[in-house]
Amino acid sequence: MPASPPSTAAPARTPHGAPPLPAAHRTGGPLRPRRATGLPERLARSAAAGQGHHLSTDELPGWLDSRRRAGRFRVFRVPFTELDGWSFAEDTGDLVHRSGRFFSVEGLHVTAEDGPVPEWHQPVIRQSEVGILGILVKEFDGVLHCLMQAKMEPGNPNLLQLSPTVQATRSNYTKVHRGADVKYIEYFTSALAAGRARALTDSLQSEHGAWFLGKSNRNMVVEALDDVPLHEDFCWLTLGQLGALLHHDNLVNMDSRTVLSCLSAALTGPAERDRALHTDQELRSWFTHERARRALTARSVPLRDLPGWEWDAMAGRHREGRYFDVVGVAVEAGNREITSWRQPLFEPRGRGVTAFVTKRVDGVPHVLMHARAEAGFLDTVQLAPTVQYTPGNYAWLPAGLRPPFLDQVLDGTAGTVRYDVVHAEEGGRFLNAESHYRIIEADADFAAEEPPGHRWFSRAQLAACIGQANCVNVQARTLFAVLDLALG
Known about the structure:
Blueprint: H1 39-48, H2 60-70, E1 73-78, E2 86-88, E3 95-97, E4 104-112, E5 119-126, E6 131-140, E7 143-152, E8 160-163, E9 166-168, H3 170-173, H4 190-194, E10 197-206, E11 216-224, E12 234-237, H5 239-245, H6 254-261, H7 264-267, H8 280-293, E13 296-301, E14 309-311, E15 315-318, E16 324-333, E17 340-348, E18 352-361, E19 364-373, E20 381-384, E21 387-389, H9 406-411, E22 415-424, E23 434-442, E24 454-458, H10 459-466, H11 474-487
Parallel strand pairs: 6-11, 18-23
Antiparallel strand pairs: 1-16, 2-3, 4-5, 4-13, 6-7, 6-9, 7-8, 7-12, 10-11, 14-15, 15-16, 16-17, 18-19, 18-21, 19-20, 19-24, 22-23
Helix pairs in contact: 1-5, 5-11, 6-11
Domain dTDP-4-dehydro-6-deoxy-alpha-D-glucopyranose 2,3-dehydratase: 58-263, 281-483
Pfam families: Hexose_dehydrat (PF03559)
Region (Disordered): 1-36, 42-61
């Protein structure tokens, strides 16, 4: 895929709160290299470092437990009538916050010309503002370390997971909730603008297209150029340590995984960059064709009268017991910017299965990618894992209409499983949303012919796609972070 064009001059402050250009920005020469020199080598050193400056890898689970004990965390379900600040709008029945900010739960009517289900209705989360998911990095003893946070999210199965330095919506970091400041946010705004920090990666990336409508976040890795105070809920870890921690269930949260994936292009080995099963232009043309041909339309409709869904005091749910429920929770969290609040969450029915099927072609690693359409994507189609489904939602379909490769991934006939870990999805909006994330090395006879909607990408080609906005979905970005950091 082509690289993004260079940025042009920007106003002092964009509507989404992006910082202004640094004072040192120049419009005249001398010319400089287009890419930061030495960055791949610095990232490779960090990825090879199994121990860090602050905590050993073995100490990290215990440190997280200590932060869990130090906080006051409690989440319990409440009826919608007890969601302080939230109400169902009189005209549409949409679930909205009285501030008009944060997010809303609305109805969506989807029609699709391609796929086993031609039409459906569902609730969806509308959150138009762009948040910041940012990891601050700094060198210790010549090795880059990432500043990670022990952060509580109400939907996490174990409440506390390892999150980025900053994980905040614009409403949060502009303090619509009138709470405390978001720690370290200045490194991603004012310090970046003043030249006291520099961005190593910075891109808009999508969130779950099945549950969010047009949602993107700014994924950033920023290097601090001065001393950084260490708060008690934060720790410094190398990329190698984070790779080891990705082998643990429900430890590294979704927002950390997506930001880490954005470093992947620089970690791709030089031998992989120039050879692939398909040329870049062939893949670009295929992907453009998939986006152009997939006729999927999503139209907002009132939540109140959503066909196929029913509501009571405690939940909104599908009449056939599939997909997800909408529920309300009350939250207490002693170490958050605001220590108690109430909100709706989406709670999936069943655990998902998300898998990359990989193989080597003449020694070059490739991944079978799926051009997947989801109603909430801005461009309808993004590159997704080989398999990405909740099996129970498709159990009622006849065998000929079941998703490609799902049964082979479930029954183990696709190949050798190299990675199988349970990871939670975004805990700020989803309750107990988990998937088995798997990487399977294909047998020799697997998908000798690429089925419609699927293509083999070299790892380097996929890394280049992740560098673009809203091209590779969040589930695929998780698995790519695993390929680079946990499996090497």
